[in-house]
Specification:
With 211 residues, this protein is mostly helical. It has one domain. 71% of the residues lie in helices and 0% in strands. The protein contains eight helices and no strands. It has helices spanning 3-30, 35-38, 52-61, 79-109, 118-142, 150-158, 164-188, 192-209. Helix 4 (79-109) crosses helix 8 (192-209).
């Protein structure tokens, strides 16, 4: 990956991560938990949300994570249901950004901005393309039901209480499993997570962006 590509990837990465975490905090605040707001995390300032390793992973392999927004379930009216809504908000935010990116990509390819000089248009097209790809990858990556990803909290919300021990086990060991899968992919060039995400990325790149 050359320097120019990295420069074009950074803005969509920052927006994708920041909006993802902001929406977690915004929905939590709407449902009665002001923890994120009180800790200064209800903001679109990327510096409040970035995790250095997670951000680097997005630039390198196009999936990663930010610092999780803090949520106190004790402040929620219906913790089990509300935590599902809060957890879904992040991936939903990325799907929304992907939708907008897809419209922009189709517009750029369709000649709507033909009056823009090519030396500006091509980098803009590449940046929007990266935005579409990154937001789709981030949305579906976070839906994997392995802690600390959003999918694990969504899974807990739908599991009957008698199966809470499964969710507890996942929360205890899930982060090790996730990191193991990532490291395995980097060492062997056989990415299990990448293989899972690729069909979704290709499908939604085609549906939303026509690519």
């Amino acid at each position: 990956m050359n320097f120019q590509t990295i420069i074009l990837i950074i803005p969509p990465v920052l927006l994708a991560l920041t909006f993802h975490e902001f929406m977690h905090g915004w929905v939590a605040n709407k449902l009665g938990d002001p923890t994120a707001k009180n800790m200064g995390r209800l903001t679109m300032n990327p510096l409040a949300h970035l995790d250095p390793i997670g951000t680097l992973m997005i630039i390198i392999v196009h999936f990663g994570w930010a610092k999780p927004v803090p949520v106190n379930p004790n402040n929620l009216r219906d913790p089990k249901k509300d935590m599902v809504l809060i957890s879904v908000a992040g991936p939903a935010a990325n799907i929304a950004l992907a939708f907008v990116s897809g419209i922009l990509l189709r517009s750029l390819r369709g000649g709507l901005f033909s009056s823009v000089p090519m030396n500006v248009l091509q980098p803009l097209y590449n940046m929007v393309y990266f935005s579409l790809q990154i937001n789709i990858a981030l949305a579906f990556f976070n839906l994997i039901p392995i802690p600390p990803l959003d999918g694990s909290k969504i899974l807990r919300g739908f599991l009957p209480y008698k199966y809470d021990h499964i969710a507890d086990w996942l929360e205890q060991y899930g982060s090790f499993v996730l990191m193991g899968l990532i490291v395995f992919g980097m060492l062997t060039n056989v990415s299990i997570i990448g293989a899972f995400l690729s069909p979704f990325i290709r499908l939604f790149m085609s549906i939303l962006g026509g690519v």
